Amino acid sequence: MGTELLHCDEEISCFRDIKPGAPHHYLVVPTKHVGNCKSLSKEHVPLLKRMVETGKEILQRNNVTDLSDVRFGFHLPPFCSVTHLHLHVLAPVSQMGFMSRLVYRLNSYWFVTADQLIELLDSKGDTK
Questions:
Q1: How many CB atoms lie within 10 A of CB 126?
Q2: Are 90 and 59 in contact (CB under 8 A)?
């Protein structure tokens, strides 16, 4: 039984998370291998922005219109279960359970929002 691709192009793919932390939980991944957040540099910012836009498109296709109740983010090493960059797209955040709120917690040392990561890369050049 294969994974249903919700989006697939030459640069990005998107599919449902097998252990959803919210009613809508998607993973957006680059087609080309990218290790994790710590391996990124400023040159990856356009890719990250495209990943976020793809996540938004998938949410809209699935009738999620309140983007203020959505979380886009990445786990930081060593808290990555997969060694391939993947953006978590979760909605609605208000319906996430206790454990999901912990695992995808804002301002934690294990999870960073896409906006925070993009801002960090733009300002510092990398996360190393």
A1: 13
A2: no
**Known catalytic membership, residue 86:** yes
Summarize pLDDT for 31-71 with one digit per residue, the tens.
999 988 888 999 999 999 999 999 999 999 999 999 999 99
Asked if 111 contacts 105 with a C-beta cutoff of 8 angstroms, the reply is: yes
pTM for this structure? 0.92
Active-site entry in 24, 25, 44, 86: 86
Closest CA to 58 of 90, 95, 104, 94: 90
pLDDT tens for residues 12-27?
A: 999 999 999 999 999 9
Cα(62)–Cα(39) distance, rounded to whole angstroms?
32
In tens, the pLDDT along 96-118 reads 999 999 999 998 989 999 999 99
What lies within 8 Å, CB to CB, of 85 at 6+ separation is 29, 30, 34, 35, 36, 37, 39, 40, 74
